[in-house]
Amino acid sequence: MVTLNLDRPPEETIVLRAIPEDNAAVPKDQSFSQLTLWLLAVRDQRDRGAFAEMFDYLAPRLKGFVIRCGARPALAEEIVQDVMLTIWRKSALFDPHRAQATAWIYQIARNRHIDIVRKESRPVPDELVEDSCAEPDASQILALEQEAEQLKHAIAQLHPDQKEMIVKAYMGDLTHQEISSQTGLPLGTVKSRIRLGLGRLRKELKGLR
Amino acid sequence: MPAITHHIPDEMIVAYVSGSLPHAFSMVVASHLSYCRGCQASLGAHRAAGGALLETGEGVAVDTGLKSKVLAALDAPVVPEPVYEAKGIYPGPVIQSLKGRPPRWKTLGMGVKQDILFEDSEGSARLLFIPAGQAVPDHSHNGLELTLVLQGSFSDETGQFGVGDVEIGDENLEHTPVADAGDPCICLAATDAPLRFRAFMPRLLQPLFRI
Q1: Residues A97, A28: Cα–Cα separation, whole Å
Q2: If I label B210, which of A83, A177, A207, B189 is the partner at 20 to 30 A Cα–Cα?
Q3: Pick from A1, A2, A5: which is nearest to A187 by CA?
Q4: Chain B residues whose beta carbon lies within 8 Å of the beta carbon of residue A63
């Protein structure tokens, strides 16, 4: 059984990095990842320069990724083009409070790949409306980004065999039966994500008192 | 609405996220996710794991002309894809499959109706309408079956399933789900077993024989 152990300190230690509330109106911070900054510039300013820089960073990674997902090089080029254009066109849907930049791009890459191969639109869940507080919250964005960083470290430390299984699972190369019998999944992150949600809720309730 | 107590197993969420789940099951998973904050949290976590693998994996150089091709296409007009949102008791993924139309119910007898939404070599998905007190048709024929409640509830030997709950059955699950009293039970059901019958008389008759 392969396990990605991602348990981490309680959420209070993460919130320590929060920037002051009155600064949170525009959720931008130097400590956001470069990808997040590019995506926000594309989303909010339709910034072509930022998009071009993001292309240089992302396109080779995307191509490597879709090839590992089973695409031949010619199809891989087509998918990379499609994914980059989808990022440009759908950037309004990117919300760094809800998903890390890489998580958002990963799902676009998988969806476009499958839609192109199967010619059948993937079913996408309804968005669940967040609690009424829709104010930008830089600390939440940072917490999500920190989670992504921890994930990268955790993956880097995996034994090569374990990593291979995890890679296969997330590249769509294993059936769900194979996933359940061969990989232990990063339950730690799931728990931390739920903890994060609860932590935020607690903070909001405190604000109401 | 009572809390959702029957969820999608984590490995199935990974299979959904990564696209290796058959389309019919993806419809059920996406529909359950439309109700369930907890499972959406796992979805987010697994997307993050996928994102980390994408970012840290080895890159492959793209063709030299690709960048200018993409930049030139930024202003190209795009036909917006239709967006299907939840309507009435049906979550977005069901509305997407129905293409916005209401279900076309076909009677199976004893007040039970179905609408086959999707069918391919990997599986099929259908809506089921079961009046109170009637048995839920057996749609699996020995494969894996996922049954998500959209309205009302049903109960079987393993417990009660209300709106948003998913029952996961396979050949090891011997059960006879029956719609509870109250509103007719409407479910989204998917299976990966080949369709042997397009109607399900065998289990429909079971309650009669058991009286």
Answers
A1: 12
A2: B189
A3: A5
A4: 59-62
**What structural domains does chain A harbor?**
31-121+136-208 (1.10.1740.10)
What is the predicted pLDDT for the residue at A113? 92
Cα-only R_g, chain A: 18
- Sheet containing B159-161: which strands, arranged edge to edge? B159-161, B154-156, B178-179
pLDDT at A159: 72
- Report the C-alpha gap between B167 and B187 in whole angstroms: 10
Q: Classify B52 in phi/psi space as left (phi over 0), alpha (psi -120 to 50) or beta.
A: alpha
**Helix, strand or coil for residue B19?**
coil
Taking the model in full, what pTM does it have? Answer: 0.82
- Mean pLDDT of all residues in A92-102: 91
**CB-based contacts of A191, cutoff 8 Å, min separation 6:** A7
pLDDT digits (tens, 9 = 90+) for B120-134: 888 899 999 999 999
Q: How far apart are CA A104 and CA B11, in angstroms?
A: 20
Residue window 68-107, chain B: list those with CB within 8 Å of chain A: 69-71, 73-74, 78, 81, 85-86, 91-93, 96-97
Whether residues B60 and A183 touch (CB distance < 8 A) is answered with no
Show the domains of chain B with their CATH numbers: 1-61+83-211 (2.60.120.10)
Interface predicted TM-score (ipTM): 0.86
Distance from CA of B112 to the nearest CA of A (A): 26
